[in-house]
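User: For a benchmark we're assembling, each entry needs the component sequences followed by a predicted structure for the full assembly. Here are entry 17's components. Please fill in the structure.
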Amino acid sequence: MAFITATDLSLGYDSQVIVSGLNFTVNRGDYLCIVGENGSGKTTLMKTLLHLKEPVGGQIVTGDGLKKNEIGYLPQQTLVQRDFPASVKEIVLSGCQGRCGMRPFYNREEKSLARENMERMGILALADRCYRDLSGGQQQRVLLARALCATRKILLLDEPVAGLDPVVTAQMYDLIKDLNRDGITIIMISHDIEAAMKYASHILHIGDRVFFGTIDEYRKSETGHFFIEGQKDGVESNG
Amino acid sequence: MDKLILYLQYPFVRYALIVGVLIALCSSLLGVTLVLKRFSFIGDGLSHVAFGAMAIAAVLQLTNEMVIILPVTVISAVLLLRTGKNARIQGDAAIAMVSVGALAFGYLLMNVFSTSPNLSGDVCSTLFGSTSILTLTQTEVWVCVVLSVAVVLIFLFFYNRIFAVTFDEDFSRAAGTRADAYNLMIAVVIAVIIVLAMNLVGSLLISALVIFPALSAMRVFNSFRSVTVCSAILSVVSAFFGIVLSILAGTPVGSTIVAVDVAVFLVCYAVGAAKGGFRK
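Assistant: Structure for entry 17:
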């Protein structure tokens, strides 16, 4: 049984369907990249996987001991967060909220978990700093540490490198790769097809054509060939 | 000083101080969340709704106006917070719409069905809360104490959840927190505070009580906890000195409190700028 199995999934707003016929599975230890053009429904898919939205059709089944609220989520930054007065510690600790149940306060175990994850992300020294004063890369590490407090199994990352400079981007990818090596399953939305080809084990391409399979299959497939070449041409003509 | 001690011997002055401080405390606690959720204007909108509801109560000649004002305001609060996510009417537009609409209808009703000989005086005191805080009865004080204690307890009990939902609603929901329920709770609590605060500063100036302490605290402090604590302290101190000042100087209570809040904000702004080396 896979962590997540999607069968004949259709996504959209209200009853308007953006993308349909999605079939894919995510197994323990996978590194899945979701690629596709803007507006193809990547973020909607992410929200559906998180149960923030209902699918228009089809279904998502979680299995292999994965509970609904055991998914760690790294969202895109919102306007609200940009000038939010909160310390790093407070934000990371809020990742533990799913563990609390009805209990209103965090216990010692959760506090040490938050500490552990700050250490893991290399932001322990920043614990008392204000979130809004951090650099983009540091902020992403904070949110990643928070997501890790929510899960030991699977992380959903929504464009984790958006707005980061190349050096920090590379560090971020390495960090995610390390997490994957430690046994955490990764699902990532990405615009960066090159990085996806480098790091991911599976690709889900959504848009006019839908593809799901391993990296090698994607490279050989028509969709993948088209998309990878297209991106390269784009980069070259831009550069 | 002697004058102040003399005044404090009157029960209505003590009542005003107690109620003023409690309302200031409650409004500042929720203020941080509202400001951060970009709902600064919700206090304003709701207070106008409360004004409209009060006009209806006056027309119906109810003896206990709360029966109408509280439920109407609570329902409006729920609806307004909900439209924040609605694509068809933007949150800020919805608030502006409800706000001015209720104000207009309230005044219209009071005018058409007026029973009072001094209409503009009535309207003015509802809008600016000129003297009603000095005419509180003992029962009203107790109601206010009970509701304030409830608000503070709710806030303390759900502090971590309120932080989580304010910072990142989607993440909270994904982690299994019932964000909608907390939003609803925030809406109800803020409505209760606004109805209480109408007595203190009147319905036009309530927003000031909600947003100024939070904004002042946010200039100076960097964590959610310190901002919340600082905002509560600033608000209580400002309300206390505002009331005392207004009694001593014979100025209107509500606007004096707000003036003190504004002064505190300016000081905090300067402190924040000095601290951050003119970062922003």
